[in-house]
Fold this protein.
Amino acid sequence: MNWSDNRLCRLLGIDLPVIQGGMIYMSGAKLAAAVSNAGGLGLLGSGSMRPDLFGEQLAKCRSLTDRPFGVNVPLLYPHSREVVELAVADGVTIFVTSAGSPKRAIGVLKKAGCTVLHVVASPELAVKCEDAGCDAVICEGFEAGGHNGREELTTMVLVPQCVQAVNIPVVAAGGIATGGQWAAAMALGADGVQVGSRFAVTRESSGHEAFKQAVVEAGAGDTMLAMKRHVPVRLLRNRFFEQVAEAEARGADRDELQELLGQGRARRGMLEGDLDEGELEIGQVSGLIDDVPTVAEVVARMSTDYTAAVTRLAGA
Amino acid sequence: MNWSDNRLCRLLGIDLPVIQGGMIYMSGAKLAAAVSNAGGLGLLGSGSMRPDLFGEQLAKCRSLTDRPFGVNVPLLYPHSREVVELAVADGVTIFVTSAGSPKRAIGVLKKAGCTVLHVVASPELAVKCEDAGCDAVICEGFEAGGHNGREELTTMVLVPQCVQAVNIPVVAAGGIATGGQWAAAMALGADGVQVGSRFAVTRESSGHEAFKQAVVEAGAGDTMLAMKRHVPVRLLRNRFFEQVAEAEARGADRDELQELLGQGRARRGMLEGDLDEGELEIGQVSGLIDDVPTVAEVVARMSTDYTAAVTRLAGA
């Protein structure tokens, strides 16, 4: 395919309209640099990093790639402001913001001359992002791993509605791990895709090997949305998930759920590999992830399969 | 597009790989015949018909079209056996079975020389259908209206997994109302699509005009899955939905929910137009449905937009 006219590629200065999702405990310098080196946009996921660790990873990422990369900043996290300051001072020009209102953060970033993409789960929020000056929106469907919108709109219905609602580029996210899914997202009118789970399960991902293996072994129905009424999050089913589900089923309140969640559950599961008691954030697309290849291999496969899907469609 | 080599079209003897979903209170003879006359496969939705009414609708459908049409039979419904006998005796050769194990019903239908498609929500069930002798599977994602799988797999992740799992044709359902969504489903490897909500909101649908209007006015997040732990069903939010959601949130048991659901809620909502107290089954794609056109108009639009999407993809 020839992506030279693709407006997401032009906006970000990349060769392929594929963004690697910023994921806690997965997307450090190694993963982000590998994706950028493969022609996509790598993102440092700052959500699980204290500022000092973030600074180190930022320096490392610079040393590993000359290509553009960005930083994902969940706005509600305690260190988000400091992370943004560090990154801007270092010369980062691409930010993906999520988990919070884009308005305030975007003002600062736009003043600094940065390109800002915000993650949304509804066409209404996509419009607010465009109005606030965002350069693009990332529309993330119900099937996505980790934190998730309350509207439960799937990628298939969310993306066309966002494409209708805004004029800025639309990136589809949620349920995209193969070239066929990438082509499907483009058929829905997206300008590009964000890929999370598939990059979380690569050699360059900093997730624990036991976690990666658990995703490889997961079947079709093995993830589920937990905490639907509070902070929806898609998890791989395990003992911890069952505890949360049981508490929810009997109508536990927010405080009880918060205590159950406790501190460090995600770190325990995804970074330390505690498959029973840890929180294992991953997308529904796990059922299509069967190995732990390199990032370059993932991108090559996806590109080949994308072309095959488009050729097949055009031949009908 | 040229669909003469499409294996779903060849299996069913139709011109376009588009099946109209069999929907209670929506899909009588008028809707089914209109879809078949437009080149797709119309289905009589027998789920809401007693055998005498079904017999009338069957005769009427024959009088309205010379093209192939089929019958949708929810296997768990009380009259399903009688409906199947009536239809087979009348010469119907295409059946879509749903809501129940395909095994027993399929044996009878295959012996009678019929073509059988079963609706599934997981790749595991798709494999069982193939083993049981089904001619095709309809893979229905989480975004679909009405009754829904427990796995909550979205169309984007369900379809490719079913395509991997079976050799028989795979029909994608859930979230498909536009030509772009149709093209997306084909990019995922589907052989065709089943379209429900979009056909429910046409002139030929037998749903109440007030119900159709409510879907036209619905926004992106206005449907939600209710009864998740019992019999998941996607509904338009209304007073009845809120009552169910409230009961679920405080941990109501199956009996209480069953009583709340009561008898005739769906009839009241969809056929009689009681938008407050009725059960309004419709898909998440409601947010993309903005008018009440004829079936011919829907099919023409979808075909034009399909071609546009494929051409756009091939040009990149």
In short: The mean pLDDT of chain A is 95.
